[in-house]
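We close this part of the discussion by returning to an individual protein. In the encoding step, the backbone of a single protein was reduced to a row of integers, each denoting a local shape. The sequence in question and its structure tokens are set out directly beneath this paragraph.
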Amino acid sequence: MIYRRLTLPPALLLLLLCSCSGPEAEIPVPDLSAAEPRVRERITRLGDEVHTAPRDGEGWGAYGKALEAHGFLEPAQIAYGHAIELDPDDFRWPYFLAALLDATDPTTAVVWYLRAIALDPDYAPARIRIAQTLEKLARDDEAWEQYLRASDLEPDNPFGPLGLGQIALRRNDLERALHEIERAYEIDPEIHAVVAALAQALHRSGELGRAQSLAQGAAELPRITYRRDPRRAEIQSEAVDARSHLRRAVTYRDVGQLEQALREAQAGLAVSPDLAEGHYLAAEIHARLGDHDAARAAASRGLELAPDRAGGRAELAKALHALGRYDEAEREALLALESDPSAATMEVIVAEALARKGQLEAAIERLQVAVPARPEETSWARMLAGVLTDAERPEEAREVLEGLIESHPQLAEAWTDLGFVTLRLGNNRQALAAFERAATFDPTPRDTLPGLVQTLLLTSGPEVAERRMEARLEERPADHSARLLFADLLAGRNRFEEATVQIQRVLEQVPRRADAWIQLGYVNLHNRRPEEATAAFEHAQKIAPAPEVRAAAARGAAEARAALDRGTGPR
């Protein structure tokens, strides 16, 4: 078997592509001395197969895929070149070679993309790739045609209209740019490039408010560009080493495909179970999937394997915090801060633990360090405002929220928080205005509507609050939280039968909503129906998913049974 180690630049490598595919073709092989055993075995075996059948284009292509999958790119180019010569009708080989050359030699990559497209003109991802390469070469007219064809072939692929929109922007065709990029945004509003391009186009068109909002949203999206490409996915599946699995896990994680990310991380750990970074990655993915017990176990295992690894204790602290084990989370976060004093997330975890223990001033000091370090974390600023309010410093809380609104003017939660703070300061009219703004920005607010109703009761009376709720339910009859709030308002005016009707309408649609059953129990209790109240509370206990909800139902049941013993409801 004749092996040659390659150190030539890509341009020279291409000169060799079709020069040695005969029986004595030299087989390129990388230095495998540092490779994992599974990688060495696979690449060596495929190289032996090429040696045995040097005229087999499929064998050369398989060898190239394995080389590329494990990061041996120059030998992979040589292998694909032989596959192209020996198997010239297979779309994959020129396509894979083009994708490899894209970053280093885009002009040559275009040649191979065109050859691949000639073999399969209906494969949209190839059209997207060549268009993006043509854009890099400032060949926008050619790129435009490729994007158009890709959009026709695959209308649900956002990169076709995105590319058309970006070219239209460069041509100063703002109307076409907005049309195309809005279409891309409709297909997938979670792609950073799409959101950023739409923000740019809107800014140029003068829609500054929406442009600013989208720009802020884009900053929170991963910058990785994930393109659907089943043919290129073949190469990913070739990698058998643990770190390749972890790289794929990171890619899937960054584009939000968490189940696939977890599978890849676990596959990597199956190959190398003592790889600490794999356990830490698995911990992060488990946490994002909501399995915080698994996240804690994975982070603990990673910490056992690499106790000094940067970020290890931070992952464990985050998992413990998510599990509600705040004291343990605080301890790990403090240790993490010893090795990385700039870890703002750890400051927040410590601050929350301190606030829960009533150490509000210490919590405020921590949050005042974390919030400026990560201004994009709007929930941290809201937490600081909340702790300031609890510490009887509402004026400072208002200043924090006003600063947050200045940078995030359409953040409904910030307006809602400002409403509650100004309500506490006695500025009822200002509170009402803040709640109204919050309702404008978020059609399904969690806390906005209760604050709005509370303020209306104080400023305008129950009739106005009731009319507002009726209008809300006419506009959104499926808003169950609003309907339950309306029932509460009716019960507060001793209109128990009407309140019961509203709650029952919710339970017809969501029969296992435990909080609605608890509310029904209290309405019946106040309506002097302790038997029905007891039944409602006991049913809530059976179906409640959370311990705190079951506890609330148990308290209600105890009150109802006491009223039943007295033979009356509460006065």
In short: The longest helix spans residues 547-566.
